[in-house]
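Table S2 (continued). Query chain:
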Amino acid sequence: MAPRSSSALVVALTGPPDVRLLARTHVDLVGHDLPAQAYHAAAGLPLPEAERLVHRWAEEALSSVEACFAELMRQHPTVAVGIAAVVRPVPALDAVLRSHPLLHLAEGQLSREAVAEAATRAGLPVHYLDPKGRHDPVGVERTAALGRVAGPPWRKEHKMAALAALTALG
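Corresponding output:
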């Protein structure tokens, strides 16, 4: 998966040696009744209201990803989840709300945590792949080949999600 602020790209693959694309979709983490970026929306609120908003956003995102995983697991055997992201420590909410760069850091981590928690609740191990790190050339070529077969769209996020899935499959 490749989490973003309010959605995540989902790429499901069969495991090596025969790697095939099983599914490619996205999941909206929150509905239209919540802001796409919880921390940015919380920045102008009193701290208790900000805490409630971020908590509500996190709970809805978790529910959305759990539903996505449940549907995927009904259709395909699922053994692990790969997340194309790096886990970052996030300071306390009051510090985050005072710093624009920390707002962005916290937004990304909030979506990653929703995906990881949903995977854990589904009994699936989670593997992280640093999108900016060094990647196995064979895996990179496999993801490019998957994209050629799948056709557009096959953007960088799709490639990273597929590479994270390959990494998770080992």
